[in-house]
Design goal:
Strand content: under 5%
Structural class: mainly alpha
Largest sheet: none
Number of helices: 4
Number of strands: 0
Order of helices and strands: HHHH
Shape: flat
Helix content: 55-70%
């Protein structure tokens, strides 16, 4: 009988390893969901329209908004989704200029 590359020999350790990997993945998802939930519960009361729509100021009495960060994120997403090759070339150029 010839052995095929597609035949898989099952070992008891395979099941144990599969359970360990799936358990680690589940634990990771639970911890990540807990962190996100904690941030939302404790941070949501501080989010206002002023916080979302004003720019950041360094002065102590100035506004502490995040509008420029939101706009820059939208620019990056638009550039990346419009032309992935141009974005890849741009990143490659940036990394070459840093070296």
């Amino acid at each position: 009988m010839t052995k095929s590359l597609y035949q898989k020999k099952r070992r008891p350790s395979d099941l144990l390893l599969k359970i360990a990997i799936n358990g680690a993945a589940l634990l990771t998802v639970i911890v990540l969901a807990g962190i996100i939930l904690y941030i939302l519960i404790n941070g949501l009361p501080y989010i206002s329209w002023e916080f979302l729509s004003t720019s950041y100021s360094e002065s102590p009495s100035g506004a502490k908004g995040i509008l420029p960060m939101i706009i820059n994120t939208l620019y990056i997403v638009a550039i990346y989704t419009s032309d992935r090759h141009a974005y890849r070339d741009f990143i490659r150029h940036l990394s070459d200029s840093v070296r």
